[in-house]
Design brief:
The protein is α+β, with helices and mostly antiparallel strands. The protein is built from eight helices and eleven strands. The protein has two domains: about 120 residues, no CATH class; about 120 residues, no CATH class.
């Protein structure tokens, strides 16, 4: 079917591209690019803001930089920016207009490592955020742990964000195995920043560093090899078998 033309409008646009230095951020790390387009017919001007990555840092090169509101740092003490059920982008990201009007600096510039659900500052230092463990990835199952005393311990642990929500639950039949049908699931753990820094330093050279950090924080790696890994969460008293035995059996 051939379309019937109703009317036709002709107008021109003026496009300007501006580059800006981010306060207190080296130009060899990141800059701001603003593409401003003006409609000659309506006079309306629209601006699109982009953060250009110029860094050579191995980790930051794989990240997505963004400007966040100051409230962001309080929010991520109990909520993960990678769990969209907890936070939405509107909760913490500056709009393009806000970036141009607000007093931004390196303090607002955060680097999102979406491949591993991690955050970094511009200096390459990671930022501790809550980590969720559901029944698929929780190490707290009746295969390895005494769940009742462990549950009581976790309910008092300063890293556990959702203490009141913790329960021992059945693992769905399609994921359960013999001697592994109960677990402490949907636990949210946010370590203190000092510990997180130390864990990152230990595993930052690993090819799968973000996964190793996740496993270390929950002491899952310690379960399998206590000689190589540290019990960061302090759950050794609640393991059914000594970690060395688990390492031999795995």
């Amino acid at each position: 079917m051939e379309l019937q033309q109703l009317d036709w409008k002709n107008y021109t646009t003026e496009t300007n591209i501006f580059n800006y230095k981010i306060p207190n951020v080296d130009e060899n790390i990141a800059t701001i690019e603003v593409i401003s387009t003006k409609n000659s017919n309506s006079g309306e001007t629209k601006s699109v803001v982009t953060i250009n990555k110029t860094t050579t840092n191995k980790v930051l090169k794989e990240c997505t930089p963004a400007f966040v509101k100051r409230s962001f740092f309080e929010l991520i003490k109990t909520k993960s920016p990678f769990d969209y059920r907890s936070l939405t982008l509107e909760d913490y990201l500056f709009s393009d207009d806000s970036i141009l009007s607000e007093d931004i600096s390196e303090k607002n510039l955060i680097w999102f490592y979406f491949s591993g659900d991690m955050l970094f500052k511009t200096n390459g230092i990671p930022i501790a955020t809550p980590i969720y463990y559901d029944y698929n990835c929780t190490p707290f199952s009746n295969e390895y742990c005494y769940l009742k005393p462990l549950l009581n311990y976790l309910k008092e642990h300063p890293w556990v964000v959702n203490k009141e929500d913790l329960e021992i639950e059945n693992i769905p039949y399609y994921n359960s195995e013999k001697n592994r049908d109960r677990c402490i699931r949907d636990i949210c753990i946010c370590p203190d920043q000092d510990t997180y820094d130390r864990v990152y330093q230990q595993y930052s050279g690993d090819k799968y560093f973000s996964r190793r950090i996740r496993e270390a924080i929950s002491s899952q790696l310690f379960m399998y090899n206590s000689e190589k890994h540290h019990d960061w969460l302090g759950i050794a008293p609640f393991l059914k078998n000594p970690p060395k035995q688990l390492a031999q059996d795995s």
